[in-house]
Design brief:
The complex is a heterodimer of chains A (107) and B (119). By secondary structure, chain A is mainly beta. Chain A contains no helices and nine strands. Chain B is globular, with a radius of gyration of 13 Å. Classes of the chains: A mainly beta (107), B mainly beta (119).
């Protein structure tokens, strides 16, 4: 049972901006976001709530405010169709927790 | 380059045991923590266990506590997950992932190994 809550699915047309929320954050540890295309391992998209690893396009962005975080994708492409997960370390549980995942469909 | 390769996944009967391996290359385990994360068929990510670079910080998810044990062999640059008393609900792809040591993000993942618990 996920402690972090994400919408099950979102959709967007190319050229639009789509956002994926992650709520229920407790504590001060940063949020990371992962992309998982079908049949592949997850891939780190955003770390420290707002930073992109090298090689991640700047159409991906992250933000955090209070108990929620948001992943933004500007101008999603067909190749961005995937499941997206937020995650963080819960220091009270001594456990990594993930959101339930959000499936992105590009119309 | 950084690479993580899991192995050891198999079909096993309920109550059985299995040991998974995560072989690291391109970096030294002494400087990083490693997580095991699993994904049941058609489901989301579930964290399983974590071992820090000094081995003093080891944690397991409540769902596997007392049955699974994470460990590492720095001479082999390999992390293990010993799984005992396996149950049907442990059926999943098991991934190992490197903790980037900057804020609990997992920067490199292996391709995963499939564990199926079935009679």
């Amino acid at each position: 049972q996920s402690v972090l809550t994400q919408p099950p699915s979102v959709s967007a047309a190319p050229g639009q901006k789509v956002t994926i929320s992650c709520s229920g954050i407790t504590g001060n540890n940063p949020i990371s976001w992962y992309q998982q295309v079908p049949g592949a391992a997850p891939k780190l998209l955003i770390y420290a709530s707002i930073r992109r690893p090298s090689g991640i396009p700047d159409r991906f962005s992250g933000s955090k405010s209070g108990t929620s975080a948001t992943l933004g994708i500007t101008g999603p492409q067909a190749g961005d169709e995937a499941d997206y997960y937020c995650g963080t370390w819960d220091s009270s549980l001594n456990a990594m927790i993930f959101g339930g995942g959000t499936k992105l469909t590009v119309l | 380059q950084v690479q993580l390769v899991e192995s050891g996944g198999h079909v096993v009967q309920p109550g059985g045991s299995l040991r998974l391996s995560c072989a690291a290359s391109g970096f030294n385990l002494r400087g990083y923590g490693i997580h095991w994360v699993r994904q049941a068929p058609g489901k989301g990510l579930e964290w399983v266990a974590f071992i820090w670079n000094d081995e003093k910080n080891i944690h397991h998810a409540d769902s596997v506590k007392g049955r699974f044990t994470i460990s590492r062999d720095t001479s082999r640059n390999t992390v293990y997950l010993q799984m005992n008393d396996l149950r049907a609900e442990d059926t999943a792809v098991y991934y190992c992932a490197r903790d980037a040591t900057r804020g609990w993000d997992l920067d490199y993942w292996g391709r995963g190994t499939l564990v199926t618990v079935s009679s």
